Amino acid sequence: MSSEPTPNPIRDQAVTWFLRLKADDASAAERREFLVWLNEHPRHKQAYEDVKRHWQWMEPLKALSFEARHEALKYRPRSRHRMTVYAAAALVLLSVGLSTYWQQAGIIFPLTYQVAKGERQVFKLADGSSLELNTDSAVNVSITPWRRTVELLHGEVYFQVAHDSRRPFQVTAGHGRITDIGTAFEVYRQTGKTLVAVREGIVDVETKERRRLTANQQVSYAENGEFLPAENQPIESLTAWRRGQLIFHARRLDDALTEMSRYHNKQIRLEDNNLAALRISGAFPSDRLDSMLDAVARILPVRVERRGDNDIVIRRMGKPKS
Fold first, then answer.
1. Would you call 145 helix, strand, or coil by DSSP?
2. Does this entry carry the keyword Transmembrane (predicted)?
3. 155/137 Cα distance (integer angstroms)
């Protein structure tokens, strides 16, 4: 786990725009340019609102004395790019001011949580919520007095959220945003799509449209924000990884092999693409690749060929080597 603040270029842009618009000489053209930036993405609006709130919080800090503040205030506009200089100084103050405030209030600075391939781990958050990361997964987490946000960078996470009506718990994954209303749910960001499944409680999933999910419901959406046809996998199967298992119900072979390879540093490939549509069912231990592959060979008309340490090929049964 990393505890260093993660780079946030959108926040930096929001700070620069906030300061520029506060200047007396902000032009109409700049204000139009700001509106274009603001409406480019929902995260721009969220970042700008956050900066405004942060700025209000910093009012009491004007009377305080600390080293970073003095260093930031040493900057003076010496060129026509004075707003760039002001923004740099204010960004220092903003970051240090928030850090000071959050430390005094016992609030966590934005953190990155991640686990390596083949691992899974539970992390407890400052608000009492917890998140369990599956293999090769990473998230950015920010807990503030008015909002709780998680960005799923890649992988799969199971959330158990502490209820707090004053602070929504929001998860962004790809082009979607999931808002929790005190519940337990899973988000799995895959290649080309994201899956959201609710175990208990209620969540709202917002992309180009909005859908509300209750217990045992799920939805998937594509990278372009379009909702996809429901797969309706049992929630116990979707979250079986928390027990160290992979459970498939008539799953395509190529999809099943992709899931197996997530837990191991091995390349698993099909020699014949026509094998991809074969279906497989069963429960498999995620940490025992050989056992999973042996089971595949028993269930389906295929054989497993190991080429070296990291290359595994699935061949059609009886097909001679080329």
1. coil
2. yes
3. 4
More confident residue, 101 or 224: 224
Q: What is the DSSP letter of 60?
A: G
Provide the 8-state DSSP code for 234. Answer: -
Which CATH number does 244-316 carry?
3.55.50.30
Among 226, 244, 247, which residue's Cα sits nearest to residue 235? 247
pTM over 0.85: no
* Residue found under tokens 């895959």: 190
Distance CA 317, CA 304 (A): 9
What ranges do the domains of the chain cover?
A: 9-105, 111-235, 244-316
d(Cα 284, Cα 191) in Å, to the nearest integer? 22
Cα–Cα distance for residue pair 101/60, rounded to 1 Å: 10
Mean predicted confidence (pLDDT) in 37-47: 88
CA-CA distance, 34 to 214, in Å (whole number)? Answer: 39
If one counts every other C-beta atom within 10 angstroms of the C-beta of residue 142, the result is: 19
Q: What is the DSSP pairing of strand 184-190 with strand 169-173? A: unpaired
Distances (CA, A) of 84 to 51, 80, 90: 16, 9, 10
Looking at CATH, the fold of the domain delimited by 111-235 is given as Jelly Rolls (2.60.120)
Number of neighbours of residue 131 by Cβ within 10 angstroms: 22
Mean pLDDT, all residues of the chain:
82
Rounded Cα gap, residues 76 and 88, in angstroms: 11
Joined tokens for residue 282: 């069963």
Beta strands in the chain (DSSP E): 111-115, 121-124, 130-133, 137-143, 148-160, 169-173, 176-180, 184-190, 193-200, 203-206, 210-213, 218-222, 245-252, 267-270, 279-285, 302-307, 311-316
**Domain 244-316 in the same topology as domain 111-235:** no
